[in-house]
Amino acid sequence: MATVIGQVECPACGHPKAEVREGKAGTATIYCGECKAQTWAKSPKASSGLRSRIAAAGGAAKPPADDDGNWLRKL
């Protein structure tokens, strides 16, 4: 089961408390309990972007220190 790491505004309906979750692979996802929308990050760069939205909203989640956003280097 995914761990909730913060909350952001839902990109689909604008609900202010959509959950940002960290999945098994370490990538972030958004789940909105209001409209049931789910958004997946398909790369480490996208995952870092979702994590930065939490930080911008006043949360504590930050991108991993070793993540420079270039997912090709991790292959």
Indicate the structural class: alpha+beta
- Count the beta strands: 4
Number of helices: 1
Shape: globular
Report the average pLDDT across residues: 79
Number of domains: 1
Give the H and E element order.
EEEEH
Radius of gyration: 12 Å
Distance between the termini: 25 Å
Could you explain how this protein is built, in words?
The protein has 75 residues and is α+β, with helices and mostly antiparallel strands. The chain has one domain (3-64). 17% of the residues lie in helices and 24% in strands. It has one helix and four strands, in the order ββββα. It has one helix at residues 44-56, and strands spanning 3-8, 18-22, 28-31, 38-40. A four-stranded antiparallel beta sheet has the order 1-2-3-4, with helices on one face. β2 and β3 form a beta hairpin. The chain is globular. The termini are far apart. 19% of the residues are buried.
Layout of strands and helices, then pairs:
Blueprint: E1 3-8, E2 18-22, E3 28-31, E4 38-40, H1 44-56
Antiparallel strand pairs: 1-2, 2-3, 3-4
Main attributes?
75 residues; alpha+beta; 4-stranded antiparallel β-sheet; 1 helix; 4 strands
Give a brief outline of the structure.
This protein has 75 residues and is of the alpha+beta class. Helices cover 17% and strands 24% of the residues.
